[in-house]
Amino acid sequence: MSEGALRKGQEQSQESGQGEGQGRSQDEGQGEGMPQGKKPAAPKAVKSGSAELRYDAKATARMFPPEKRNPASYPELKGLAPTDAVYRPQNNPSVMLSVHTGLGTVSDPAQWVRTAFAPNEMAVAAKDFDIQDAGAKGAVLRCGISQGDGVYIPLCVWADSTSVGDVIGLGDATTHSLKKADLKTFAQQTRDLRKAMLGGSAG
Questions:
Q1: Neighbour count for residue 164 (Cβ, 10 Å)
Q2: Tens digits of pLDDT across the chain (203 residues)
Q3: At 182, phi and psi to the nearest 5?
Q4: How many angstroms separate the CA atoms of 76 and 72, rounded?
Q5: 1 exposed, middle or buried (CB, 10 Å; 0-12, 13-18, 19+)?
Q6: What residues are paired with 136 via a beta bridge?
Q7: Rounded CA gap, 145 and 153, in Å?
Q8: Full-model pTM
């Protein structure tokens, strides 16, 4: 995750829009120069525990307009086919999960995750979770709570040999109290989004 990606998350953390969009994948309108080939999907619904995460087309278009999808904006995803998406839990639509992921060849997943976390000021030290994918080579899933602008922001980063991604909690996923932060649930949502967006494929 780039420093710019987290800044965008902080800027969007107080967004109050509740409407759930439907329909087309946000891959439409990707900037020129994007890597060709298979890209991560953006399913309309992703099952996660007892809840369902629903793709929000309107929030995705707002947070990731075409002009923001230029490859130059994401040097950390050079050579990877990217997808951006926003999901909302059906049982708590005031929460937003911003997903930024890329598909391709990743030579050193562990280093990629370390680099992604390096610029962030952490209120809760990042910890590793089981990615629960026996076929994912060299896979790392790391989650923590960053702090900025007086709020705490949950975030998870994963990398394996064929994909990388980050999930940032926005809206009511942010909190002014660390006691309300639930990294275990956030890690599970990240696992489920990763699996669904990669089509269930192992890294």
A1: 26
A2: 444 344 444 444 434 343 333 333 334 333 334 444 588 999 999 999 999 999 999 999 999 887 766 666 677 778 888 899 999 999 999 999 999 999 999 999 999 999 999 989 999 889 999 999 999 999 999 999 999 888 999 999 999 999 999 999 999 999 998 888 889 999 999 999 999 999 854 33
A3: -125, 85
A4: 9
A5: buried
A6: none
A7: 5
A8: 0.82
The Cα 175–Cα 26 span in angstroms is 28
Q: How far is CA 117 from CA 6, 41, 62, 126, 195, in A?
A: 10, 24, 25, 8, 22
Residue type, 173: A
CB distance 130 to 31 below 8 Å: no
Segment (H or E) for 170: strand 163-171
